[in-house]
């Protein structure tokens, strides 16, 4: 039983890392969904538009280039990462609205995670420089 307790946190960490990877790696499944028959998948945009919007989601300036603001410091790095998370959020919202009538729960969940990360970046940016963006000696 003691071994199980020690192994469980490691297994949880592995599961969390795998889930986090979903935000970072282009999802071939999403492109396959774009290629499915709209009568089956529920897609309402053209296949070409779906692939274009999905590629934009996974671009390096959006979901394909993000990491947590918890792991970085410095105003310029935090500002850039916040923008990538915001791009990730807006692009996920766009593809969900234009191609899936806002009914794609996976896109909704991933958009919620992206906007949560924007909030994490905002909080880190409130820290004084050099860790965040705030003035280290604010006037009273």
Distance between the termini: 56 Å
CA-based shape? elongated
Q: Count of DSSP helices? A: 6
How many domains make up the 3D coordinates?
1
Uncertain stretches of 5 or more adjacent residues: 4-8, 11-27
Largest sheet: none
Notes on the structure:
By secondary structure, the chain is mainly alpha-helical. It has one domain (2-125). The protein is 66% helix and 0% strand. It has 6 helices and no strands. Mean pLDDT is 82; it is low at 4-8 and 11-27.
Key features?
mainly alpha; about 65% helix
Sum this structure up briefly.
By secondary structure, the protein is mainly α. 66% of the residues lie in helices and 0% in strands.
Topology at a glance:
Elements: H1 2-24, H2 28-35, H3 38-41, H4 47-57, H5 75-100, H6 105-125
